[in-house]
Protein: Integrin alpha-PS2
Amino acid sequence: MQANQRQHCLRHGLSRKVFRISTYIYRTMWHFALILVMVNLRTSAFNVDTRTAVVHQSTNGSMFGFSIALHRDKDFSWLLVGAPKAQTKQPEVEEGGAVFRCSIDSPNMCQMIPFDTSGPGKIILRGNKEDMDKKSHQWFGATVHSSGENGAIVACAPRYVYYSSNLKRQDPVGTCWVVRGSFQNFQEYSPCRTTAWGYHRQGSCQAGFSAAVTKDGRQLFIGAVGSWYWQGQLYSQDLLSKESQYGTPEGPEEED
Structure:
């Protein structure tokens, strides 16, 4: 009698477990099906205008379109396009990268913005003229941002390399350029180009990995992801006073 009761209880308990598992599987499959339906609805509800689209193209391999931003200046609207592997006319620079301003109305109407037209900086060392930085493959144009109408534009090269004074170290500190005044006034900002070399300090900060300018065009923010053993830094720069700059300090060792 007791054995029969135990078998009955076991069968009853097993049935309840099977029922619970079946219910769980059913609910999981129902939720999964619902997610698929929602994803399908979200992806099928949007399409690019292929009939009246304005298309801009550039040289193959330039990574034209890696970054984009909209800008308006003196009643003209522009599409800003970064091409971080574009070949420019900078002397002794290979694939330094560029930023273009393109028409929003006519296809293939783009002009390169002359942020930096010079080659590598030079230094006299032991009577010889040597490069003090490297602009080749610096990925200028990887980051592009506009502060808005008649405002400032910032474009960055996070892979820009700076050499130490004795040329023994070459660190990817990164750099950014800002243009204001209707594409007339250019200024460079490279906050990690200091004597704090080495990846354990600011040598690999890669300033310009991200960047933005406030809507009033007054304050520049630069992200430097590689500082302090890749803890990262954020710089705030007053565009009306180059000496007015603030950078977040190094955190505790356990955050390395």
Q: What stands out?
A: The chain has two domains: 1-41, 67-255.
